[in-house]
What we know:
Keywords: Methyltransferase, Transferase. By secondary structure, the protein is α/β, with parallel strands linked by helices.
Amino acid sequence: MLDRFSSQADLYAQYRIDYxxxxxxxxxxxxxxxxxxxxxxxxNGQVAAVLAxxxxxxxxxxxxxxxxxxxxxxxxxxxxxxxxxxxxxAPASFDLITVxxxxxWFEPDAFVDEVRxxxxxxxxxxxxxxxxxxxxxxxxxxxRKFHDETMGPYWDPNRQHITxxxxxxxxxxxxxxxxxxxxxxxxxxxxxxxxxxxxxSVAKYQKQHDQDPVAKLAAELSQRWGSxxxxxxxxxxxxxxxxx
Length: 244
């Protein structure tokens, strides 16, 4: 797994979304025991911080030290630099394993094997992600064009798994459930532009060309957006399974 997010760790910590309470309200009652949870590819620890309120111990892993440097310290969260597919954890350790907006970057079969190794029998694995932001009929086509055309050559091929909502990634677990949620925020044009700068494709473009591609979009997006904050919506998709 390549590190695609260290270069924009500051922006990521400030401008990436967190997840709605409804997601956790649905997920957590399905976990039989709340002893240990593993938040894989934790980034700046936003999911781990929620899990820490419900589990005795949370192990949070990522391959980016820059991301983990932005994570808040918590007495029952342990942060580790380790790939998703090969962890230091003992077999049958976890009641819950979560992956938010990251499983598409993993080596899929190796990750499934690791989940089976470290999950307790009957443990829950939950993987979720979110699609392209939705704003309004006059702004959505502009963001879509930037996503598909301007950034198209700079997206890693694995990004297609977000578009098809993980349909082609293995999930060989029992009692599989699918669920949808929505993240709703009020954003200014400036906030949206900085969110776009967290994209891995934008970081790749900047590395190759030493230019900020979002700057080319800024004037038109800001004009269409106006000075007021607007409601934005991120569609969230989730799949849950039981490790037997």
